[in-house]
Amino acid sequence: MKADEIEDKEIKDFLKFLEVANDIVKEKGKEYQFKCPLCKGNAKAYKSTYNGHLWAKCEKCDMNIIE
Length: 67
Known about the structure:
Blueprint: H1 3-24, E1 32-35, E2 42-47, E3 54-58, E4 64-66
C-alpha cells in the first residue's frame, strides 16, 4: 500500500468512527456504549454538557476522538 492510500484509509476509518459515535449520543452528559464500526470492539461516547464536545474511544483498536 502506498503512503497516500494508507492516509486515505486512516481518514475514512476516522470519519466512520466519528459518524457512528456522534449518531449514538442523544443526550449531553450521558455516556453511551456501542460496537466499534472498525473492529467490533466495545466503544464509549459522551458529549460534554459544558460545550457539547464529543469524546469517544474504542477499547480494542484504540480509535479515539477528543474534540
